[in-house]
Amino acid sequence: MQSPTLSTRPTTTTRDGRRGYDDLIPDLDQLAGTEPGTPGRDALREYVIREFRPLVRNLSRRFAAPGRGVEDIEQAGMLGLVKAVDRYDPSSATGGPLGYLVPSIRGEMKRHLRDYSWAVRVPRDLKELAVTVGRVADEMGQRLGRPPRPSEIATEVGVPIGEVVDALGALESHHAKSLDAPVGDDGSGEGLSLAERMGSEDPALDLAAHGPGMRAALNELPERERRMLVLRFYGDRTQSQIATELGISQMHVSRLLSRTLARLRERLADD
Predict the structure, then answer these.
(1) 2 partner at 20 to 30 Å CA-CA among 35, 72, 100, 167?
(2) Neighbouring residues of 26: CB distance < 8 A, sequence distance ≥ 6
(3) 65 in helix, strand or coil?
(4) Which ranges carry the RNA polymerase sigma-70 region domain (predicted)?
(5) Is 2.60.40.650 the CATH number for 121-173?
(6) Which pLDDT tens digit goes with each residue over 188-206?
């Protein structure tokens, strides 16, 4: 068998239009008719794949969207191109090389988006149903002039309504929403972000378990010490203000507070 030879044409940097790749048909035919391991076949294969790379780039831009890395989609498309080039059969290729290669490239891109572009992990069968439900819902929306009901989608797709509801829920999980994105209005005309609407940990939770023991320990204190604690920690008074109100020195207030707090700690530790 004659060894394949590379075309003397230089690498084409611009290819456009449906017939823009027809000049590569002889190379594809030659590659398909050459057994693996034949001298020169690897170089010819590399040349063909390189020449079809602009096609992958163009297709990847159509699938690119926020949250979908165009580089990852292009890489998936290159995998589809390599598979299609290796499987190329001149006898079954119709519509030129694009008619044979494009479905394989697009299929790998769609498979990548199905498997890796979801914000949460979703079973594969549910992903596939969600894609179908989304497409059918769009078509029915255009036909009906309104969003279709889940029951209508279920009838159209031919699956139970419960599965349609699960699929619609999965579609909501396809892309994660930013915590900084406004999701509503607080009545003042300014939208609140999701992060601002989310609850936060209540610092009082750590003290809830000590509540009963604390009340019992406080009840055992003399009246002056209890009043001093209330003024200091609930009334936000300074030691000087407490001393003036109780008619004692600030130094005495400081000693009493330290002694009282130490007693409370010991009581709570014992409990």
Answers:
(1) 100
(2) 7
(3) strand
(4) 49-118, 129-204, 217-266
(5) no
(6) 445 666 666 666 666 666 6
